[in-house]
Amino acid sequence: MEFPMKGVEHKYIVTEVGNRVHCVVAGAGPPVLLLHGFPEFWYSFRYQIPALAAAGFRVIVPDTRGAGESEIVEASDKYMWNDIIGDTVAVLKGLNVTEKVLVVGHDWGAMFAGQLSRIRPDLVRAVVYLGFIPFTWRAQLTLVEDMRLVFGDEVYIHVFQVSLPLSHLLLQEKTSSLMLAFLSRWSDDPQLRIPKVSSDKEEALPDWITSADLQFYADTFDKTGFTPSLNVYRNFKRSTELNAPFIDTILEHPSLLIKATRDTGHQNVSNSQLCLDPEEILAANKPLFPNLQKVVVIDANHFMHQEKHEEVNKAIIEFLISCPPS
């Protein structure tokens, strides 16, 4: 496959358990690790990679196992949080990263950023959470059930737990149309259902998605399918149970939270995520995130780092430059 972004390197790291992880690397300087969410892969950070590289950072963007160009692991139970963290640590080791990394995570990437901070604090210098602060262990344990109670039986995270009906639903749609629906309309649905493809064959693209972007998303997911990424969701509860030793771990790293006003899911699941007032968010999260230094609220949907990339980039870069050296 021909990659659309120039000026980056594509690396392939083989982990100690034998699976191959793809990552994009750009720039030179202090290492910044970008962790994507769903339905995404490295390209979702296309606006952040050149900006961070130009600001003097070495940018590292791995594809989660089974996503993008990373190898698909066939066993569905091998998509646990700690499997993903293991792949991430292998990437850092394979790239000879010897200093602590600045981590930026979006969607489940924010959760993985928090998990990396919990179990490998020696590797992390600071964290930027895009969308939400990682849930507490107890909230994560019942997350699927809680979201079903709040949003109903069609909420995406509940539907994602069922294999065959979901596969049929996704396969019957044109991938490019499905990706456009996810990226542009998903988080605006008050019931957070899997988005329906527009019946308008000439649906206008938002100004932050080009036709080439959309085609690259479609070509990539046509190759990998959605199942590997969905397996991450299907292992949420089991991953939480296995991480019981980290209940209420205090995350000491300096951190920044960037929230979006139209990110419906992360405003209604728990009281700690509901508020959009920066001072209230800081106060509510102080017990477990004592070094949460700032909260930035942006008028955007769930994919804020694409829709409002200039604002997000500015906030990220200002925070990362302000972080004390490792």
UniProtKB/TrEMBL annotation:
Q: Which GO terms describe its molecular function?
A: hydrolase activity
Q: Which InterPro entries match?
A: AB_hydrolase_1, AB_hydrolase_fold, Epox_hydrolase-like
Task: Please provide the record's keywords in A-Z order.
Answer: Hydrolase
Q: Which Pfam families match?
A: Abhydrolase_1
Domain annotation AB hydrolase-1: ranges:
30-307
Q: Which family does it belong to?
A: Belongs to the AB hydrolase superfamily. Epoxide hydrolase family.
Q: What protein name does the entry list?
A: AB hydrolase-1 domain-containing protein
The species is: Marchantia polymorpha
